[in-house]
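Ticket #4471: structure output looks truncated?

Reporter: J.K.
Steps to reproduce: submitted the chain below (317 residues) through the standard prediction queue, then opened the result file.
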Amino acid sequence: MQTLEFEKSVADLEAKIEELRHLSDGGHVNIASEIGKLRDKVNKQLQGLYAKLTPAQKVQVARHADRPHCLDYIAALIDEFTPLAGDRAFAEDQAIIGGLGRFRGTPCVIIGQERGHDTDSRIKHNFGMAKPEGYRKAQRLMRLADHFGLPIITLVDTAGAFPGVDAEARGQAEAIARSIETCLQVAVPLVTCIIGEGGSGGAIALATGDRILMLEHAIYSVISPEGCASILWRSAANAAEAAAALRLTAQDLLQLGIIDRIIPEPLGGAHRNPDEAIAAVGDALAKALDDVAKLDKKALLAARRDKFLDMGQKALA
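Returned output as attached by the reporter:
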């Protein structure tokens, strides 16, 4: 597992535990007690470290390669998943995964950004950075859900929309704006969860929902810390300072009223216990869907509209 810079002391202890386990496997020495003590030390260190993460460290955790991604959540939470491809206009975009399935017995449409776990899958999914056809596919699936009265679940995990010339030529900004508009127009429950990195309009395109959930160590911002630092300080070296200024942590965003709930992560982050993190997200999604399912279509649309108008009013206050 990838070790983050601030976790070095924990990694050293875990390496000792592995050494002792190899000794124990030989059957010559019983060192279970010593392993238990070291494990307690690891847990205490993780608890201390993760209780006081800086915004820059949260960015590292949110981007950790071993965090569960969209396809991991779909595999664990969605039964009978049937992927649907293409935007019916230009092409299929593997950065956005979407389709039909059952979430705890309820038929639904699920849409999410997939970053990939290794080099091949990251290239296949373009590191989770969608092009216009990806956002148009998302619009198509949201309208499909609206037509059949199915709730929508979206999973956000992207550094941002793909910034290439070809994407701009095909109307990247318009595709994102239309996706946000579609989120606001569909008359079915729409619940989103930011599971890793929520970057810029590429994230908002899927995150304009009735309930916005966010994992404890995820991030959500208008621009990446590196991009912000490059603009304001002309150097990405100021990324840590930018991360603090952007107020991109779940705790900041809950205080600002941008998100509705923080989902606690396992000790040491979702990458240390993906199954537990996925289960927690599933429980939170189920509760959020139950809450909004009580509203009729007119009330649902009005509440969603007011939710985002209120954010603007608070920002101006």
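Triage note (M.O.): checked the attachment and the full token line is present. The chain has a mean pLDDT of 92.
Status: closed, working as intended.
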